[in-house]
Protein backbone atom coordinates (compact mmCIF):
# COMPACT_ATOMS: atom_id res chain seq x y z
CA UNK A 1 0.00 0.00 0.00
CA UNK A 2 1.23 3.45 -0.89
CA UNK A 3 1.53 6.36 1.50
CA UNK A 4 -1.44 8.70 1.14
CA UNK A 5 -0.58 11.31 3.73
CA UNK A 6 2.95 12.05 4.88
CA UNK A 7 3.90 14.43 7.62
CA UNK A 8 7.61 15.09 8.05
CA UNK A 9 9.18 16.86 11.01
CA UNK A 10 6.21 19.18 11.44
CA UNK A 11 6.67 21.79 14.16
CA UNK A 12 4.13 24.40 15.23
CA UNK A 13 4.67 27.03 17.91
CA UNK A 14 2.15 29.43 19.41
CA UNK A 15 4.44 32.02 20.94
CA UNK A 16 6.50 30.06 23.42
CA UNK A 17 4.21 27.02 23.42
CA UNK A 18 5.34 24.19 21.19
CA UNK A 19 2.04 22.64 20.11
CA UNK A 20 3.52 20.15 17.66
CA UNK A 21 7.13 19.15 18.10
CA UNK A 22 9.08 17.62 15.21
CA UNK A 23 6.27 15.18 14.44
CA UNK A 24 6.53 12.67 11.61
CA UNK A 25 4.04 10.01 10.61
CA UNK A 26 2.40 8.73 7.49
CA UNK A 27 -0.99 7.24 6.69
CA UNK A 28 -1.27 4.44 4.14
CA UNK A 29 -3.98 4.34 1.51
CA UNK A 30 -6.98 2.37 2.80
CA UNK A 31 -6.10 2.15 6.48
CA UNK A 32 -7.73 3.57 9.60
CA UNK A 33 -5.12 5.51 11.54
CA UNK A 34 -5.93 6.84 15.00
CA UNK A 35 -4.20 9.54 17.04
CA UNK A 36 -4.58 9.29 20.80
CA UNK A 37 -3.14 11.30 23.64
CA UNK A 38 -4.02 13.27 26.74
CA UNK A 39 -5.78 16.63 26.48
CA UNK A 40 -3.54 19.32 25.03
CA UNK A 41 -1.27 16.81 23.35
CA UNK A 42 -1.71 18.54 19.98
CA UNK A 43 -4.06 16.09 18.28
CA UNK A 44 -6.53 18.63 16.96
CA UNK A 45 -3.63 20.92 16.07
CA UNK A 46 -2.31 18.21 13.76
CA UNK A 47 -5.74 18.17 12.07
CA UNK A 48 -5.73 21.94 11.73
CA UNK A 49 -2.26 21.70 10.16
CA UNK A 50 -3.53 19.22 7.58
CA UNK A 51 -6.61 21.41 6.92
CA UNK A 52 -4.19 24.33 6.45
CA UNK A 53 -5.84 26.46 9.14
CA UNK A 54 -2.37 26.78 10.68
CA UNK A 55 0.97 27.20 8.99
CA UNK A 56 3.65 24.93 10.40
CA UNK A 57 6.79 26.54 11.75
CA UNK A 58 8.87 23.90 10.03
CA UNK A 59 8.39 20.60 8.26
CA UNK A 60 6.61 19.19 5.24
CA UNK A 61 3.09 17.91 4.60
CA UNK A 62 2.35 15.81 1.54
CA UNK A 63 -0.89 14.29 0.29
CA UNK A 64 -0.55 11.70 -2.45
CA UNK A 65 2.84 13.15 -3.32
CA UNK A 66 1.55 16.74 -3.56
CA UNK A 67 2.78 19.49 -1.31
CA UNK A 68 -0.07 20.50 1.01
CA UNK A 69 1.71 23.63 2.18
CA UNK A 70 1.40 25.15 -1.29
CA UNK A 71 -2.39 25.10 -0.96
CA UNK A 72 -4.86 27.28 0.89
CA UNK A 73 -7.49 25.89 3.27
CA UNK A 74 -10.24 25.71 0.66
CA UNK A 75 -7.95 24.10 -1.93
CA UNK A 76 -7.23 21.22 0.45
CA UNK A 77 -10.81 20.01 -0.04
CA UNK A 78 -10.24 19.87 -3.80
CA UNK A 79 -7.59 17.22 -3.23
CA UNK A 80 -10.19 15.01 -1.57
CA UNK A 81 -9.56 15.69 2.11
CA UNK A 82 -12.72 16.13 4.18
CA UNK A 83 -13.00 16.60 7.91
CA UNK A 84 -15.28 16.85 10.90
CA UNK A 85 -14.77 19.09 13.91
CA UNK A 86 -14.46 18.36 17.60
CA UNK A 87 -17.04 21.04 18.49
CA UNK A 88 -19.54 20.48 15.73
CA UNK A 89 -19.27 23.17 13.05
CA UNK A 90 -22.47 22.73 11.08
CA UNK A 91 -24.43 25.46 9.32
CA UNK A 92 -27.08 25.96 12.01
CA UNK A 93 -29.63 27.95 10.04
CA UNK A 94 -29.87 25.45 7.22
CA UNK A 95 -31.49 22.05 6.85
CA UNK A 96 -29.63 18.74 7.02
CA UNK A 97 -30.03 18.41 3.26
CA UNK A 98 -28.52 21.85 2.61
CA UNK A 99 -25.63 21.07 4.94
CA UNK A 100 -24.87 17.88 3.06
CA UNK A 101 -25.14 19.73 -0.26
CA UNK A 102 -22.50 22.22 0.92
CA UNK A 103 -20.27 19.17 1.23
CA UNK A 104 -20.63 18.85 -2.57
CA UNK A 105 -19.26 22.35 -3.09
CA UNK A 106 -15.93 21.14 -4.39
CA UNK A 107 -17.80 19.48 -7.28
CA UNK A 108 -19.42 22.76 -8.36
CA UNK A 109 -19.23 23.05 -12.17
CA UNK A 110 -21.42 26.11 -12.72
CA UNK A 111 -20.75 29.81 -12.33
CA UNK A 112 -22.63 32.65 -10.70
CA UNK A 113 -24.43 33.86 -13.82
CA UNK A 114 -25.64 30.38 -14.75
CA UNK A 115 -26.90 29.90 -11.22
CA UNK A 116 -28.80 33.21 -11.19
CA UNK A 117 -30.54 32.20 -14.42
CA UNK A 118 -30.87 28.58 -13.19
CA UNK A 119 -29.96 27.15 -16.56
CA UNK A 120 -30.70 23.49 -17.39
CA UNK A 121 -27.07 22.69 -16.60
CA UNK A 122 -27.48 24.00 -13.05
CA UNK A 123 -30.58 21.83 -12.65
CA UNK A 124 -28.77 18.75 -13.96
CA UNK A 125 -25.86 19.42 -11.59
CA UNK A 126 -28.25 19.94 -8.67
CA UNK A 127 -29.86 16.58 -9.37
CA UNK A 128 -26.46 14.93 -9.59
CA UNK A 129 -25.39 16.45 -6.25
CA UNK A 130 -28.71 15.46 -4.73
CA UNK A 131 -28.30 11.84 -5.84
CA UNK A 132 -24.84 11.72 -4.26
CA UNK A 133 -26.18 13.25 -1.05
CA UNK A 134 -29.07 10.77 -0.95
CA UNK A 135 -26.55 7.92 -1.04
CA UNK A 136 -24.94 9.39 2.08
CA UNK A 137 -28.36 9.87 3.72
CA UNK A 138 -29.17 6.20 3.07
CA UNK A 139 -25.79 5.09 4.36
CA UNK A 140 -26.10 7.05 7.63
CA UNK A 141 -29.88 6.53 8.11
CA UNK A 142 -30.55 10.27 8.13
CA UNK A 143 -33.89 10.03 6.26
CA UNK A 144 -36.05 11.27 9.19
CA UNK A 145 -33.97 14.44 9.52
CA UNK A 146 -33.59 15.36 5.85
CA UNK A 147 -35.59 18.61 5.98
CA UNK A 148 -34.99 19.48 9.64
CA UNK A 149 -33.05 22.57 10.69
CA UNK A 150 -29.73 21.81 12.37
CA UNK A 151 -30.52 24.25 15.21
CA UNK A 152 -33.24 21.91 16.51
CA UNK A 153 -31.40 18.61 16.25
CA UNK A 154 -29.98 16.59 19.17
CA UNK A 155 -26.20 16.38 19.58
CA UNK A 156 -25.88 12.78 18.47
CA UNK A 157 -27.65 13.45 15.18
CA UNK A 158 -25.55 16.56 14.51
CA UNK A 159 -22.44 14.44 14.93
CA UNK A 160 -23.73 12.07 12.24
CA UNK A 161 -24.75 14.96 9.96
CA UNK A 162 -21.23 16.31 10.18
CA UNK A 163 -19.83 12.91 9.21
CA UNK A 164 -22.37 12.91 6.36
CA UNK A 165 -21.29 16.33 5.14
CA UNK A 166 -17.67 15.17 5.00
CA UNK A 167 -18.68 11.98 3.17
CA UNK A 168 -20.85 13.91 0.68
CA UNK A 169 -17.74 15.60 -0.67
CA UNK A 170 -16.53 12.21 -1.90
CA UNK A 171 -13.17 12.33 -0.12
CA UNK A 172 -10.11 10.09 -0.39
CA UNK A 173 -9.01 10.93 3.13
CA UNK A 174 -11.45 11.51 5.94
CA UNK A 175 -10.29 13.35 9.07
CA UNK A 176 -12.52 12.60 12.05
CA UNK A 177 -11.94 14.79 15.10
CA UNK A 178 -13.32 12.81 18.07
CA UNK A 179 -16.20 11.16 16.20
CA UNK A 180 -17.52 9.46 19.35
CA UNK A 181 -17.20 12.27 21.89
CA UNK A 182 -20.51 12.94 23.59
CA UNK A 183 -22.19 9.93 22.00
CA UNK A 184 -24.07 7.21 23.89
CA UNK A 185 -22.82 3.60 23.92
CA UNK A 186 -25.23 2.65 21.10
CA UNK A 187 -24.32 5.67 19.03
CA UNK A 188 -20.62 4.90 19.48
CA UNK A 189 -21.31 1.35 18.32
CA UNK A 190 -23.03 2.75 15.18
CA UNK A 191 -20.09 5.06 14.58
CA UNK A 192 -17.75 2.07 14.76
CA UNK A 193 -19.69 0.19 12.08
CA UNK A 194 -19.84 3.25 9.90
CA UNK A 195 -16.10 3.81 10.12
CA UNK A 196 -15.58 0.14 9.23
CA UNK A 197 -17.93 0.47 6.25
CA UNK A 198 -16.42 3.77 5.12
CA UNK A 199 -13.08 2.04 4.86
CA UNK A 200 -14.23 -1.31 3.45
CA UNK A 201 -17.11 -0.35 1.16
CA UNK A 202 -16.11 3.13 0.07
CA UNK A 203 -12.35 2.61 0.19
CA UNK A 204 -11.81 5.88 2.04
CA UNK A 205 -8.73 6.26 4.21
CA UNK A 206 -9.58 7.45 7.72
CA UNK A 207 -7.41 9.47 10.08
CA UNK A 208 -9.07 10.04 13.41
CA UNK A 209 -8.50 11.56 16.80
CA UNK A 210 -10.34 9.69 19.52
CA UNK A 211 -10.30 9.24 23.27
CA UNK A 212 -12.55 6.18 23.41
CA UNK A 213 -9.96 3.36 23.40
CA UNK A 214 -12.73 0.80 22.76
CA UNK A 215 -13.53 2.48 19.46
CA UNK A 216 -9.86 3.03 18.63
CA UNK A 217 -8.82 -0.57 19.15
CA UNK A 218 -12.00 -1.75 17.41
CA UNK A 219 -11.52 0.01 14.09
CA UNK A 220 -7.98 1.23 13.66
CA UNK A 221 -5.06 -0.53 12.02
CA UNK A 222 -2.42 1.66 13.54
CA UNK A 223 -2.36 4.07 16.44
CA UNK A 224 -0.13 7.06 17.13
CA UNK A 225 0.18 8.22 20.73
CA UNK A 226 1.01 11.90 21.20
CA UNK A 227 2.09 13.79 24.31
CA UNK A 228 3.12 17.44 24.37
CA UNK A 229 3.07 17.56 20.59
CA UNK A 230 5.62 14.79 20.13
CA UNK A 231 5.36 11.16 19.12
CA UNK A 232 5.25 8.80 22.11
CA UNK A 233 4.54 5.52 20.42
CA UNK A 234 3.23 4.15 17.15
CA UNK A 235 1.94 0.70 16.26
CA UNK A 236 -1.06 -1.58 16.50
CA UNK A 237 -3.65 -0.64 19.14
CA UNK A 238 -2.44 -3.41 21.45
CA UNK A 239 1.23 -2.36 21.13
CA UNK A 240 0.45 1.25 21.91
CA UNK A 241 -1.80 0.44 24.85
CA UNK A 242 0.93 -1.64 26.49
CA UNK A 243 3.73 0.83 25.76
CA UNK A 244 5.29 1.97 29.05
CA UNK A 245 5.74 5.55 27.80
CA UNK A 246 2.03 5.77 26.95
CA UNK A 247 0.99 4.39 30.32
CA UNK A 248 3.25 6.92 31.97
CA UNK A 249 1.80 9.82 29.99
CA UNK A 250 -1.73 8.85 30.92
CA UNK A 251 -1.28 7.62 34.49
CA UNK A 252 2.04 9.08 35.64
CA UNK A 253 4.88 7.07 37.22
CA UNK A 254 4.68 5.12 40.43
CA UNK A 255 7.51 6.97 42.13
CA UNK A 256 6.49 8.83 45.26
CA UNK B 1 -52.13 20.97 6.71
CA UNK B 2 -50.59 20.45 3.30
CA UNK B 3 -48.36 17.48 2.86
CA UNK B 4 -45.81 17.50 0.07
CA UNK B 5 -45.56 14.09 -1.53
CA UNK B 6 -42.26 14.21 -3.34
CA UNK B 7 -41.56 11.78 -6.14
CA UNK B 8 -38.44 13.30 -7.67
CA UNK B 9 -35.53 15.52 -6.72
CA UNK B 10 -37.06 18.23 -8.90
CA UNK B 11 -39.77 18.67 -6.29
CA UNK B 12 -37.17 20.05 -3.93
CA UNK B 13 -35.51 22.16 -6.59
CA UNK B 14 -38.53 23.83 -8.22
CA UNK B 15 -39.59 27.34 -7.25
CA UNK B 16 -42.95 26.49 -5.75
CA UNK B 17 -43.43 23.46 -3.48
CA UNK B 18 -46.98 22.78 -4.69
CA UNK B 19 -49.83 24.01 -6.88
CA UNK B 20 -51.39 25.92 -4.01
CA UNK B 21 -48.41 28.18 -3.40
CA UNK B 22 -47.89 28.56 -7.14
CA UNK B 23 -51.52 29.72 -7.32
CA UNK B 24 -51.02 32.17 -4.46
CA UNK B 25 -48.01 33.81 -6.07
CA UNK B 26 -49.62 33.80 -9.52
CA UNK B 27 -52.67 35.56 -8.05
CA UNK B 28 -50.40 38.03 -6.30
CA UNK B 29 -48.65 38.79 -9.59
CA UNK B 30 -51.96 39.22 -11.43
CA UNK B 31 -53.20 41.66 -8.77
CA UNK B 32 -49.86 43.50 -8.96
CA UNK B 33 -50.16 43.82 -12.74
CA UNK B 34 -53.74 45.15 -12.72
CA UNK B 35 -53.09 47.43 -9.74
CA UNK B 36 -52.98 50.70 -11.80
CA UNK B 37 -56.67 50.18 -12.59
CA UNK B 38 -57.54 49.57 -8.95
CA UNK B 39 -55.74 52.50 -7.35
CA UNK B 40 -55.41 56.22 -7.83
CA UNK B 41 -52.08 57.68 -8.85
CA UNK B 42 -51.04 58.70 -5.36
CA UNK B 43 -51.26 55.20 -3.90
CA UNK B 44 -49.77 53.69 -7.03
CA UNK B 45 -46.77 55.95 -6.45
CA UNK B 46 -46.53 54.69 -2.88
CA UNK B 47 -46.62 51.06 -4.03
CA UNK B 48 -43.90 51.85 -6.56
CA UNK B 49 -41.86 53.26 -3.69
CA UNK B 50 -42.40 50.03 -1.71
CA UNK B 51 -41.15 47.95 -4.65
CA UNK B 52 -38.05 50.12 -5.10
CA UNK B 53 -37.23 49.81 -1.41
CA UNK B 54 -37.84 46.07 -1.67
CA UNK B 55 -35.25 45.77 -4.46
CA UNK B 56 -32.74 47.69 -2.33
CA UNK B 57 -33.73 45.43 0.58
CA UNK B 58 -33.08 42.32 -1.53
CA UNK B 59 -29.64 43.69 -2.26
CA UNK B 60 -28.74 44.18 1.38
CA UNK B 61 -30.53 40.98 2.39
CA UNK B 62 -28.21 39.01 0.13
CA UNK B 63 -25.21 40.44 1.96
CA UNK B 64 -26.47 40.70 5.53
CA UNK B 65 -29.20 38.09 5.78
CA UNK B 66 -27.62 35.50 3.53
CA UNK B 67 -23.88 35.94 3.93
CA UNK B 68 -23.88 37.49 7.41
CA UNK B 69 -21.90 40.62 6.51
CA UNK B 70 -23.39 43.79 7.93
CA UNK B 71 -23.12 46.92 5.80
CA UNK B 72 -24.04 50.50 6.64
CA UNK B 73 -22.60 51.76 3.39
CA UNK B 74 -25.30 50.77 0.96
CA UNK B 75 -26.55 54.34 0.50
CA UNK B 76 -23.25 54.93 -1.32
CA UNK B 77 -24.09 52.14 -3.76
CA UNK B 78 -27.62 53.47 -4.22
CA UNK B 79 -26.01 56.80 -5.11
CA UNK B 80 -23.48 55.19 -7.47
CA UNK B 81 -26.23 53.26 -9.28
CA UNK B 82 -28.41 56.34 -9.51
CA UNK B 83 -25.73 58.76 -10.72
CA UNK B 84 -24.11 56.35 -13.17
CA UNK B 85 -27.44 55.34 -14.76
CA UNK B 86 -28.54 58.92 -15.22
CA UNK B 87 -25.13 60.15 -16.41
CA UNK B 88 -25.03 57.32 -18.98
CA UNK B 89 -28.48 58.36 -20.17
CA UNK B 90 -27.37 61.97 -20.43
CA UNK B 91 -24.63 60.72 -22.77
CA UNK B 92 -27.38 59.46 -25.02
CA UNK B 93 -27.40 55.80 -23.95
CA UNK B 94 -30.85 54.20 -24.05
CA UNK B 95 -32.32 53.16 -20.68
CA UNK B 96 -32.20 49.45 -21.53
CA UNK B 97 -28.39 49.67 -21.77
CA UNK B 98 -27.65 52.39 -19.20
CA UNK B 99 -29.67 50.68 -16.46
CA UNK B 100 -28.00 47.23 -16.48
CA UNK B 101 -24.57 48.79 -17.08
CA UNK B 102 -25.12 51.01 -14.02
CA UNK B 103 -25.95 47.86 -12.01
CA UNK B 104 -22.87 46.02 -13.24
CA UNK B 105 -20.64 49.06 -12.60
CA UNK B 106 -21.95 49.33 -9.04
CA UNK B 107 -21.35 45.61 -8.57
CA UNK B 108 -17.77 45.87 -9.83
CA UNK B 109 -17.01 48.87 -7.61
CA UNK B 110 -18.63 47.03 -4.69
CA UNK B 111 -16.40 44.00 -5.29
CA UNK B 112 -13.28 46.18 -5.42
CA UNK B 113 -14.24 47.88 -2.16
CA UNK B 114 -15.08 44.48 -0.66
CA UNK B 115 -11.62 43.03 -1.21
CA UNK B 116 -10.06 44.94 1.71
CA UNK B 117 -13.32 45.30 3.67
CA UNK B 118 -14.13 41.59 4.00
CA UNK B 119 -11.13 41.06 6.22
CA UNK B 120 -13.23 42.77 8.89
CA UNK B 121 -15.91 40.97 10.86
CA UNK B 122 -19.23 41.86 12.39
CA UNK B 123 -19.38 45.29 13.98
CA UNK B 124 -16.00 46.34 12.56
CA UNK B 125 -17.24 45.79 9.03
CA UNK B 126 -20.33 47.87 9.84
CA UNK B 127 -18.13 50.71 11.10
CA UNK B 128 -15.86 50.56 8.06
CA UNK B 129 -18.82 50.69 5.70
CA UNK B 130 -20.27 53.74 7.48
CA UNK B 131 -17.24 55.55 6.10
CA UNK B 132 -18.46 54.76 2.58
CA UNK B 133 -21.79 56.43 3.25
CA UNK B 134 -20.09 59.56 4.50
CA UNK B 135 -17.52 59.56 1.70
CA UNK B 136 -20.19 59.25 -0.99
CA UNK B 137 -21.66 62.62 -0.02
CA UNK B 138 -18.27 64.36 -0.27
CA UNK B 139 -17.27 62.63 -3.49
CA UNK B 140 -20.50 63.74 -5.17
CA UNK B 141 -19.74 67.33 -4.18
CA UNK B 142 -16.08 67.07 -5.26
CA UNK B 143 -17.04 65.65 -8.65
CA UNK B 144 -19.21 68.67 -9.34
CA UNK B 145 -18.45 68.83 -13.12
CA UNK B 146 -19.90 65.31 -13.55
CA UNK B 147 -22.47 65.16 -10.78
CA UNK B 148 -23.56 68.78 -10.52
CA UNK B 149 -22.75 68.52 -6.80
CA UNK B 150 -25.06 70.36 -4.45
CA UNK B 151 -27.41 71.69 -7.12
CA UNK B 152 -28.20 68.13 -8.13
CA UNK B 153 -29.49 66.39 -11.22
CA UNK B 154 -32.87 65.76 -12.77
CA UNK B 155 -33.86 62.33 -14.01
CA UNK B 156 -34.47 62.26 -17.78
CA UNK B 157 -37.40 60.60 -19.50
CA UNK B 158 -37.10 56.81 -19.88
CA UNK B 159 -37.80 55.59 -23.39
CA UNK B 160 -38.10 51.87 -24.09
CA UNK B 161 -38.85 50.99 -27.73
CA UNK B 162 -40.55 54.33 -28.22
CA UNK B 163 -42.69 54.05 -25.09
CA UNK B 164 -42.15 57.04 -22.84
CA UNK B 165 -42.04 56.32 -19.12
CA UNK B 166 -42.01 59.01 -16.49
CA UNK B 167 -42.91 58.94 -12.83
CA UNK B 168 -45.37 61.89 -12.80
CA UNK B 169 -47.00 61.88 -16.23
CA UNK B 170 -47.23 58.09 -16.66
CA UNK B 171 -47.14 56.61 -13.15
CA UNK B 172 -48.70 53.35 -14.31
CA UNK B 173 -45.95 52.67 -16.87
CA UNK B 174 -43.28 53.52 -14.34
CA UNK B 175 -44.96 51.16 -11.87
CA UNK B 176 -44.95 48.30 -14.40
CA UNK B 177 -41.28 48.92 -15.15
CA UNK B 178 -40.41 48.76 -11.45
CA UNK B 179 -42.62 45.69 -11.01
CA UNK B 180 -40.85 43.88 -13.85
CA UNK B 181 -37.42 44.67 -12.38
CA UNK B 182 -38.60 43.56 -8.93
CA UNK B 183 -39.80 40.22 -10.30
CA UNK B 184 -36.51 39.67 -12.17
CA UNK B 185 -34.39 40.50 -9.10
CA UNK B 186 -36.51 38.26 -6.89
CA UNK B 187 -36.21 35.38 -9.35
CA UNK B 188 -32.43 35.79 -9.59
CA UNK B 189 -32.19 35.87 -5.78
CA UNK B 190 -34.39 32.79 -5.46
CA UNK B 191 -32.34 30.94 -8.07
CA UNK B 192 -29.14 31.73 -6.19
CA UNK B 193 -30.61 30.32 -3.00
CA UNK B 194 -31.27 26.94 -4.58
CA UNK B 195 -27.84 26.63 -6.17
CA UNK B 196 -24.29 26.07 -4.86
CA UNK B 197 -23.33 29.74 -4.49
CA UNK B 198 -26.38 30.51 -2.34
CA UNK B 199 -25.52 27.60 -0.06
CA UNK B 200 -21.91 28.79 0.07
CA UNK B 201 -23.18 32.21 1.24
CA UNK B 202 -25.11 30.56 4.08
CA UNK B 203 -22.10 28.38 4.89
CA UNK B 204 -19.86 31.44 5.21
CA UNK B 205 -22.46 33.08 7.46
CA UNK B 206 -22.83 30.12 9.83
CA UNK B 207 -19.29 28.77 10.05
CA UNK B 208 -16.34 30.09 8.10
CA UNK B 209 -14.06 27.34 9.36
CA UNK B 210 -16.11 24.44 8.10
CA UNK B 211 -17.06 26.31 4.93
CA UNK B 212 -13.40 26.53 3.99
CA UNK B 213 -12.87 22.90 5.00
CA UNK B 214 -15.62 22.02 2.50
CA UNK B 215 -13.78 23.85 -0.28
CA UNK B 216 -15.57 27.20 -0.16
CA UNK B 217 -13.13 30.05 -0.88
CA UNK B 218 -14.13 32.46 1.90
CA UNK B 219 -12.76 35.71 0.46
CA UNK B 220 -14.03 34.99 -3.04
CA UNK B 221 -17.49 34.04 -1.78
CA UNK B 222 -17.76 37.16 0.37
CA UNK B 223 -16.59 39.33 -2.52
CA UNK B 224 -19.20 37.72 -4.77
CA UNK B 225 -21.87 38.43 -2.16
CA UNK B 226 -20.70 42.02 -1.90
CA UNK B 227 -20.65 42.45 -5.68
CA UNK B 228 -24.09 40.96 -6.26
CA UNK B 229 -25.53 42.86 -3.33
CA UNK B 230 -24.13 46.16 -4.61
CA UNK B 231 -25.32 45.45 -8.16
CA UNK B 232 -28.91 44.93 -7.01
CA UNK B 233 -28.66 47.97 -4.74
CA UNK B 234 -27.34 50.01 -7.66
CA UNK B 235 -30.37 49.07 -9.75
CA UNK B 236 -32.63 50.13 -6.88
CA UNK B 237 -30.68 53.39 -6.60
CA UNK B 238 -31.25 54.19 -10.27
CA UNK B 239 -34.98 53.58 -9.84
CA UNK B 240 -34.97 55.78 -6.74
CA UNK B 241 -33.47 58.56 -8.84
CA UNK B 242 -36.25 58.24 -11.41
CA UNK B 243 -38.84 58.03 -8.64
CA UNK B 244 -37.58 61.14 -6.87
CA UNK B 245 -37.17 63.00 -10.15
CA UNK B 246 -34.43 65.19 -8.71
CA UNK B 247 -31.57 64.30 -6.42
CA UNK B 248 -28.32 65.74 -5.09
CA UNK B 249 -25.52 64.85 -2.71
CA UNK B 250 -27.87 64.70 0.28
CA UNK B 251 -30.44 62.34 -1.21
CA UNK B 252 -28.46 59.20 -0.39
CA UNK B 253 -27.35 60.04 3.11
CA UNK B 254 -26.23 57.71 5.87
CA UNK B 255 -29.82 57.78 7.18
CA UNK B 256 -30.81 55.85 4.06
CA UNK B 257 -28.15 53.21 4.88
CA UNK B 258 -29.44 52.84 8.42
CA UNK B 259 -33.06 52.74 7.25
CA UNK B 260 -32.15 50.01 4.79
CA UNK B 261 -30.51 47.90 7.48
CA UNK B 262 -33.39 48.44 9.90
CA UNK B 263 -35.80 47.55 7.14
CA UNK B 264 -34.40 44.08 6.57
CA UNK B 265 -34.12 43.40 10.30
CA UNK B 266 -37.76 44.38 10.84
CA UNK B 267 -38.81 42.38 7.77
CA UNK B 268 -36.89 39.30 8.82
CA UNK B 269 -33.22 38.57 8.12
CA UNK B 270 -32.42 35.88 5.61
CA UNK B 271 -35.73 35.70 3.76
CA UNK B 272 -36.99 37.18 0.51
CA UNK B 273 -40.36 37.91 2.09
CA UNK B 274 -38.55 39.91 4.77
CA UNK B 275 -37.27 42.45 2.24
CA UNK B 276 -40.82 43.06 1.03
CA UNK B 277 -42.42 43.21 4.48
CA UNK B 278 -39.71 45.60 5.63
CA UNK B 279 -40.20 47.77 2.55
CA UNK B 280 -43.91 48.06 3.31
CA UNK B 281 -43.11 49.29 6.83
CA UNK B 282 -40.45 51.77 5.67
CA UNK B 283 -42.47 53.21 2.81
CA UNK B 284 -45.80 53.48 4.60
CA UNK B 285 -44.62 54.60 8.04
CA UNK B 286 -44.36 58.34 7.17
CA UNK B 287 -47.83 58.21 5.55
CA UNK B 288 -49.23 56.33 8.51
CA UNK B 289 -47.71 58.79 10.99
CA UNK B 290 -49.12 61.83 9.23
CA UNK B 291 -52.53 60.21 9.10
CA UNK B 292 -52.28 59.44 12.81
CA UNK B 293 -51.30 63.06 13.45
CA UNK B 294 -54.36 64.22 11.52
CA UNK B 295 -56.54 61.99 13.67
CA UNK B 296 -55.35 63.55 16.93
CA UNK B 297 -55.67 66.99 15.35
CA UNK B 298 -52.00 67.87 15.42
CA UNK B 299 -51.44 67.93 11.69
CA UNK B 300 -50.07 71.47 11.69
CA UNK B 301 -47.53 70.79 14.45
CA UNK B 302 -44.14 69.70 13.19
CA UNK B 303 -42.46 67.21 15.50
CA UNK B 304 -38.79 66.87 14.59
CA UNK B 305 -37.46 63.34 14.76
CA UNK B 306 -40.88 61.74 15.17
CA UNK B 307 -40.41 59.40 12.24
CA UNK B 308 -36.91 58.33 13.29
CA UNK B 309 -38.05 57.89 16.88
CA UNK B 310 -40.99 55.68 15.98
CA UNK B 311 -38.83 53.74 13.58
CA UNK B 312 -36.17 53.17 16.22
CA UNK B 313 -38.78 52.04 18.73
CA UNK B 314 -40.24 49.55 16.27
CA UNK B 315 -36.74 48.19 15.66
CA UNK B 316 -36.06 47.80 19.40
CA UNK B 317 -39.38 46.05 19.93
CA UNK B 318 -38.67 43.66 17.08
CA UNK B 319 -35.18 42.79 18.30
CA UNK B 320 -36.54 42.13 21.78
CA UNK B 321 -39.70 40.23 20.95
CA UNK B 322 -39.42 38.97 17.39
CA UNK B 323 -35.81 38.76 16.21
CA UNK B 324 -36.99 36.82 13.16
CA UNK B 325 -38.88 39.91 12.00
CA UNK B 326 -42.29 40.15 10.39
CA UNK B 327 -41.58 37.12 8.25
CA UNK B 328 -40.81 35.04 11.35
CA UNK B 329 -44.06 36.12 12.96
CA UNK B 330 -45.93 35.39 9.73
CA UNK B 331 -44.49 31.85 9.64
CA UNK B 332 -45.50 31.23 13.23
CA UNK B 333 -49.07 32.36 12.62
CA UNK B 334 -49.22 30.21 9.50
CA UNK B 335 -47.90 27.13 11.25
CA UNK B 336 -50.30 27.72 14.13
CA UNK B 337 -53.24 27.61 11.74
CA UNK B 338 -51.86 24.71 9.75
CA UNK B 339 -51.44 22.58 12.87
CA UNK B 340 -54.63 23.77 14.54
CA UNK B 341 -55.46 22.72 17.21
CA UNK B 342 -52.15 20.96 17.86
CA UNK B 343 -49.73 23.90 17.97
CA UNK B 344 -47.86 24.12 21.26
CA UNK B 345 -46.65 27.23 22.95
CA UNK B 346 -43.03 26.15 23.26
CA UNK B 347 -42.69 25.10 19.61
CA UNK B 348 -40.86 28.27 18.71
CA UNK B 349 -38.71 28.55 21.84
CA UNK B 350 -35.57 30.34 20.88
CA UNK B 351 -32.23 28.65 21.21
CA UNK B 352 -29.28 30.71 22.22
CA UNK B 353 -26.67 30.61 19.54
CA UNK B 354 -23.45 32.51 19.46
CA UNK B 355 -21.61 33.94 16.52
CA UNK B 356 -19.47 30.96 15.71
CA UNK B 357 -17.57 32.42 12.82
CA UNK B 358 -15.35 34.43 15.13
CA UNK B 359 -14.09 31.38 16.94
CA UNK B 360 -10.88 30.47 15.15
CA UNK B 361 -9.57 34.00 15.16
From TrEMBL, chain A:
Keyword terms: ATP-binding, Hydrolase, Nucleotide-binding, Transport
A cellular component annotation (GO) from this entry: plasma membrane
Pfam families registered for this protein in UniProt: ABC_tran, BCA_ABC_TP_C
Principal EC category: hydrolase
InterPro entries linked to this entry: AAA+_ATPase (IPR003593), ABC_AA/LPS_Transport (IPR051120), ABC_transporter-like_ATP-bd (IPR003439), BCA_ABC_TP_C (IPR032823), P-loop_NTPase (IPR027417)
GO molecular function, one term: ATP binding
Chain ranges of the ABC transporter domain: 5-253
EC number(s) reported in the record: 3.6.3.25
Keyword ATP-binding: yes
Encoding gene, per UniProt annotation: cysA_1
PROSITE patterns the UniProt entry points to: ABC_TRANSPORTER_2 (PS50893)
Keyword hit for Transport: yes
Protein name, entry field: Sulfate/thiosulfate import ATP-binding protein CysA
TrEMBL record, chain B:
Entry coiled-coil feature ranges: none
Signal peptide (UniProt feature, chain positions): none
Pfam families: BPD_transp_2
UniProt topology in membrane: Multi-pass membrane protein
Stored InterPro entries: ABC_transp_permease, LivM-like
Location in the cell: Cell membrane
Keyword Transcription found: no
Keywords: Cell membrane, Membrane, Transmembrane, Transmembrane helix
Stated name of the protein: Leucine/isoleucine/valine transporter permease subunit
Annotated organism of origin: Shimia marina
Amino acid sequence: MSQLLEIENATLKFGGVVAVNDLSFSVKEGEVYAIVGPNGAGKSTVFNLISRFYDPYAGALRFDGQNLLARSADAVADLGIARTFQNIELFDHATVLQNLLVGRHRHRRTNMVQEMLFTPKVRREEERHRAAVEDVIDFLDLQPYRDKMIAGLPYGVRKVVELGRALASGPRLLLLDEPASGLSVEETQDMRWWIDDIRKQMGITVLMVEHDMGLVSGVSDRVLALADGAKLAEGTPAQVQSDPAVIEAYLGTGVV
Amino acid sequence: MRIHFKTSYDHDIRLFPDLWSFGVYAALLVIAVILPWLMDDFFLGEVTNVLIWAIAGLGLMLLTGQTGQASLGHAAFLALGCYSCIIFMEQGWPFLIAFPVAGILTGVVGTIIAIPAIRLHGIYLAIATIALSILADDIIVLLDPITDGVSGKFAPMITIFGIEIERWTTPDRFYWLVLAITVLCTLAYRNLLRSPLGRAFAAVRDSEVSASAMGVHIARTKAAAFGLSCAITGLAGALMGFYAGAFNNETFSIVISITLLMMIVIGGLGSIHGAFFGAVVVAFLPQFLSMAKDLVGGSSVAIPGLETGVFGMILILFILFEPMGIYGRWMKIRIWFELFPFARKDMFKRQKSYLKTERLR
